[in-house]
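Our consortium's second objective concerns turning raw sequence data into structural hypotheses that experimental partners can test. To show how far this objective has progressed, the report includes one record in full. It was chosen at random from the queue rather than selected for favorable results. The single chain below, 326 residues long, was entered without modification.
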Amino acid sequence: MSAPSTPVAPGTPTAHPSRTSTPASTPTPAAKVQPAGRLDWRLRFAVLSVIWGFSFLLIKVGTEAYAPFQVALGRVFFGALALLTVLLIRREPLPRGRRTWAHLSVAALLLNTAPFSLFAYAELSIPSSLAGICNATSPLWGMALSLVALSEDRPTRRRVAGLGLGFLGVLTVLGAWQGFSGLDAKGTALALLAALCYPIGWIYVRRTLASTPGSPVALTGAQLLVSTLQLAVVSALFTSAPTSFPLWPTLSVIALGALGTGMALQMQYGLVTEIGPTTAQMVTYFIPVIATTAGVLLLDEQLHWNTPVGAVVVLAGAALTQTRRR
């Protein structure tokens, strides 16, 4: 969905750099003529924020009945199904070539299989709101990694300050001055590791798939298809088949995949084309706000003062890391 140093939405940073315009590719002109009958971009932006903000709540509900690997499997399966349906309607083929599919396999592991599973395991022991805030650290990790791995990303005082400010926000969220008391260290570490997977994956994508022909939908659909196969194998080896399919957890997993990974990516592509990647990627900053609100109101999760304050500091730092010289 974005370059390694840009904000990444929850579990859906799968749009690949290609000849078509995506947040990770050549910048798209910000002003586009809106097709007749299409919803205003502000409304679609709001819907996208809600869909991705609710993803962490859906993960939490899904893990009430299914193993974390199974939640991740359902997520990529229904996401792939949604995108493959789009490709079928458009009569657009999947990418070709063994080398492309080999790179897509690695990208699927780093951008889907690993982070989706880690977030699901994390939410067994931490609130969905905390998972959403941990996801917001992804651009901070991305900025730090890109300074090392991507020669075109040169540090500036403002970006370095943003990096320091962001991690100060993380310590605030975690209550470092209290010795992290009352915090599930394992679950939090898994969520932060999941956020770290995204920029690592994007650095790999930029190095290997940036010039691969094909639309973002085709490349992402193929990537989710590979991730489905990976998680099917892992689930078969490490989990038992579910004995029942409770209504709400099942609907949550379906919505997580079809909406949060399928329809949401389609909406994101449209926004990038219409208003440009810089404005479109701002959706990331609304995700932890919505995730926290949903967790508190719908799941009765407790909220201490340091959580929203730290989240604001994290987002401020992440915003600073995205500033570049003109």
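The partners drew two points from this record. Confidence is low (pLDDT under 50) at residues 1-8, 10-15, 17-33. The CA atoms of residues 50 and 270 lie 17 Å apart. Both points have been shared with the crystallography group to help prioritize constructs.
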